[in-house]
Design brief:
The protein contains 9 helices and 27 strands. It has 576 residues and is an alpha+beta fold. The longest helix has 60 residues.
Length: 576
């Protein structure tokens, strides 16, 4: 509309044009609104349906496996001795076991030293092993303390299952080294190699350890290897044997070392002499037995020598020793003896993982008492799988019922219908599902869902008769998986029908894309309608404005004629 209209005729041209334009727009606009609403509703409904179909397809896929219908219960009659779980399909049965010994790993307390965690050692290298696990530690001036060596072991051993900690007791501080490798032959071993570069307060050899052996580090003497002692008898004991060494006047540390190695070889005793910080020296005494080594002296501490022989006395408390020995698991299965390096056994009873917890008592072993692993049919799990199928199908049916419903709203009024009422795609889907579910299988003893207690109700949903299902599982447990799974099984057949409806490029997905195209065309039609209405409005204003101008001119002509007539002689005005 341009300018002010209706001045010539006094007619409200704007209102007239608006009414005519609205009348022109209304039918098409109502049509487009109805089309947009219906299309959007159908797109939303198809999306909802596709989501439910997708869930049902996933359920069918998860149930199309033998494991969903052939599960077993595996239990132990004594979980304090062992537990068991199923890892495969196996028949019901019972296995009698006796557990004589569980597998264990190695843990060793090394020689204790004075000086707490700051105690230092000569430099060199440590090789620490536990079976095939092996690490090498370089001991240098930067880490030759008890604390530094512990941290180096933990860093290098993290990937090998080897670790260390520091424990302090009445004898001093020591490293406790452990491994997580179980099984006989996997004991902790520590071998040192000194390099003579840096000296500490303790010999690096003090950290040596071998399972089944023991050692003790004797006191340090500032004068080193030439330190001399008064005469007497030095006694070495390892718990099973005692070695008496006769020490002459002014015998040196070297002399005592040589005497131990000479006289103690037969009894498994040996000694080494190592220099430590400041030129001092000390003896290390080793025994080839695991018993703690102690060194005592008996003498009047008289005669020539720089030190009393009693200065070499050392108690067993400071010994290196095994805390835990690596052992293999030893048990029997139905009387058959088995030895394993782990407490988790997967390759003895096929399809069962056994976890050993503790050994039985000697009395129970002697009395022949066993712990049984019992394998049974897991009917509860099968019932759960069937319930999952029924719930998925019923959800699909309920969604279909909601989206295709016809609801009466009152007498004389049209019913409210669901957005997918009469949809042929859904009708074809449900027809296919019903056909497959009523198709009889060829399995002996089980050929239909009805035989499992699953039947169809009036509303199209499925219901379960729990009593009948239990009876069917008791009679035909082994047949359920065959009927339900596989390409020709019910789950496989249903999955084949459902999948084409769930995919983006499937039947419903293509329908949604087509409807989206319709929505796009609605927008284009609205734009075209606006353009046409704008031209109609322009045309009407043009026509009415032309009429208004004509009426205006006619009114002016009328007024002019009236004035001229009024001015003629003898003209009598009616209002006079």
């Amino acid at each position: 509309m341009a300018g002010i209209t209706g001045l010539g005729s006094g007619i409200d041209i704007g209102s007239i044009v608006k009414a005519l334009v609205d009348a022109e727009r209304a039918p098409k606009q109502s049509q487009l609104n109805r089309l947009e609403k219906a299309t959007s509703s159908r797109i939303s409904a198809l999306g909802t349906m596709r989501s439910v179909i997708g869930e049902f397809s996933t359920t069918l896929s998860s149930l199309n496996k033998l494991s969903a219908f052939q599960k077993q219960t595996v239990s132990s009659t004594s979980s304090s001795v062992l537990t068991a779980t199923s890892t495969g399909t196996l028949p019901a049965g019972r296995f009698s076991m006796q557990v004589q010994q569980v597998a264990s790993s190695s843990k060793a307390a090394l020689q204790s030293v004075a000086g707490t965690s700051a105690a230092t050692f000569n430099s060199g290298s440590l090789n620490i092993s536990a079976g095939s696990s092996n690490i090498n530690i370089d001991v240098t001036a930067t880490n030759n303390s008890l604390l530094g060596i512990r941290d180096a072991i933990n860093t290098a051993g993290s990937s090998q299952g080897i670790g260390a900690s520091i424990v302090s007791d009445a004898s001093g501080s020591r490293l406790v080294v452990s491994s997580n490798k179980t099984g006989a032959g996997n004991d902790i071993q520590v071998v040192s190699t000194a390099d003579g570069v840096t000296q500490g307060a303790n010999s690096l050899g003090a950290l040596n350890f071998s399972s089944g052996t023991s050692s003790i580090q004797l006191p340090t003497f500032a004068a080193g290897a030439i330190s001399t002692f008064k005469a007497g008898t030095l006694s070495l004991n390892n718990g099973t044997a005692t070695l008496d060494i006769s020490v002459a006047e002014e015998a040196s540390l070297e002399d005592i070392r040589d005497a131990i190695n000479l006289d103690g070889a037969a009894q498994g005793f040996s000694a080494t002499l190592e220099s430590v910080d400041g030129g001092a020296a000390r003896l290390m005494v080793q025994s080839n037995t695991a018993g703690p080594v102690s060194v005592t002296s008996s003498s009047p501490d008289s005669g020539l020598g720089d030190n009393n022989l009693s200065a070499l006395n050392s108690v067993a408390l400071s010994n290196a020793r095994s805390i835990d020995t690596a052992k293999s698991a030893m048990f029997t299965v139905d009387g058959l003896s088995v030895v394993k390096n782990s407490n988790t056994i997967t390759d003895v009873i096929e399809g069962i993982t056994i976890n050993l917890v503790a050994a039985q008592s000697a009395e129970d072993i002697t009395a022949g008492k066993t712990v049984d692993v019992v394998v049974g049919q897991d009917k509860a799990s099968v019932r759960s799988s069937l319930q999952k199928f029924v719930e998925g199908y019923n959800k699909l049916m309920q969604t279909n019922n909601d989206l295709t419903a016809v609801v009466q709203v009152g007498e004389g009024k049209p019913p409210v219908t669901g957005p997918l009422l009469g949809d042929s795609s859904l009708r074809n889907l449900l027809t296919g599902l019903r056909k497959e579910m009523t198709q009889l299988g060829d399995q002996a003893g089980l050929s239909s869902l009805a035989e499992l207690g699953i039947t169809t109700q009036k509303d199209g949903k499925l219901s379960i008769d729990a009593v009948k299902m239990d009876e069917a599982l008791a009679a035909n447990y082994d047949k359920v998986a065959e009927f339900m799974t596989g390409e020709k099984g019910l789950m496989g057949r249903l999955e084949g029908i459902v999948k084409p409806y769930a995919n983006d490029s499937g039947i419903l997905g293509l329908r949604q894309k087509s409807l989206q195209t319709t929505l796009s065309s609605v927008d284009k039609q609205r734009a075209a309608l606006d353009l046409r209405i704008e031209k109609v409005q322009e045309r009407l204003f043009s026509q009415y404005n032309a009429m208004d101008m004509l009426v205006g001119r006619l009114q002016k002509t009328s007024e002019s004629l009236a004035n001229q007539l009024a001015s003629l002689p003898g003209f009598v005005r009616k209002d006079k």
